[in-house]
């Protein structure tokens, strides 16, 4: 089983978890360390003790603000809770096997070398790194595993069938006191005023395909001791801990409010954008625009890391309607929003690239300062006909790249652009705006003789733009070695990669079957592999052997496709769906290559995993959240997310093993958490923001 720990100003899916960063971890005196490449090594590693620590320590892990020492009988965590306060927490497992076998699991590429003092016999070289440390049979039938998720430490108790969870008793030394709150969460009050929270355990069994909840709670067995009480359960079956709904909140006023996109900063704060038709949409004092200007306005809302309060919330808009389609955040906390406006008086800033509407609807890009109280810059982007901004992204130097669609023959393009004239109907576009928002670095069209839409954009490690969308053009621009060289249906998805200055295609390909497809979201991993999700109606959509779902479920299905960096071959491709309609709208990929997907489903038999947070559809249309393994061959978890009405998720972001999802709901019983900022539906339709913690090691 797994336990979760929460530091009150951070949300961490771990027990005795700490915000650890290998990038800043101190080296022991005289120690030299070499590590593998980022793709080879996890961000938390464990070293076997070869003499660099006290003899009773078997494994250790060192970090910027903390160190972990694992012995046969206890784990010692030395941490700094602020600049002046250091605390040592000792976690002991009472009544346990005094000599459990301790083994390093999953050797990693890096090693550490310790040159301590001037005596070579004290030096330790080639000290191996491990991803996990396993205690075997720490209690009868119960193992314990320590590991890292990104920069966080975690431990699990693995309870085998027949073992008794109640045997586990933990002694916690170093806290001033232990408390249980009204929700059954364990609070560790530390010296200096900091508090750690270990949420109440969630326990269940999956028997004959049905989820059976098992009552489980902490008990205080002494001043420093905790135990566990569980209800009756089938001891021939394993106990399971499901993905934790860390927080879930509505966000809206009395009208219609739609959550379209979100971003997460380094502290875990969440930035949400979309469209609001509510005059009383929640805004904060000092925000840039406290009330709507007309029609539907863009909103930008920053939630704290617990999802319990607004840091700031503001409108951005003019007298007509606009929508925020994507938000990204930089390291300084500035929020960049891209979308579409029909307002002739949409707020722009002096010196911006385009301060007046070109005509009809235009794309826009706006940069909010870290307080949410002022625009750093804001610009239109468009020609004399209709133009729409569908998605933006931010490169390492502060340039903003935007993808969208235009019907304007005078859409602004740059000298040397890959395509300077509209091909016919509507074309996609890709533009790059400089850090000041005052000039285009490049701007190019992308399309053929029919309608083409660039729906999503991401960057590879070199800053090249990769886009996906939908095309009806039989002459859509392709590369010489394209994966698919002809349009197979009325519309196909496409995937196109531009070079750094937008003057040429690195690759471009169709992706589809003999019916209709659209590419709705895209992601790129550190190796340059490209991940796409969207919608397919084609029974012959290209699925690969061994993929999770090789055939269409019925109606339209979501799909997930992974292309190699050259865009010439599928690494894998799979359907995802049930017997009704399903759509993939958001995709994210973690450092291990696992893919997270969100979207909407009408299928009561949409694929969910054992122990899903919500194993059955709540009503009409539900959101879903699904995590694939790196091979695209199996589900790590998959769950419905919704209430009795209609629920539609639009975007997913992954950080440190947490999945953040936003979308829209009209369900009065959409699942929310106890300390959510907004626990009830305020109007006809509200945005929602959800954080899900992955329990899988």
UniProtKB/TrEMBL annotation:
What range does the record give for the signal peptide? Answer: 1-17
Q: Which residues form the DUF7948 domain?
A: 46-244
| Keywords, ordered alphabetically | Signal
Checking InterPro entries in the record gives:
DUF7948, Motility_Chemotaxis_Reg, SBBP_repeat
> Can you say what this protein is called?
Gll4200 protein
Which source organism?
Gloeobacter violaceus (strain ATCC 29082 / PCC 7421)
Tell me the lineage of the source organism: Bacteria, Bacillati, Cyanobacteriota, Cyanophyceae, Gloeobacterales
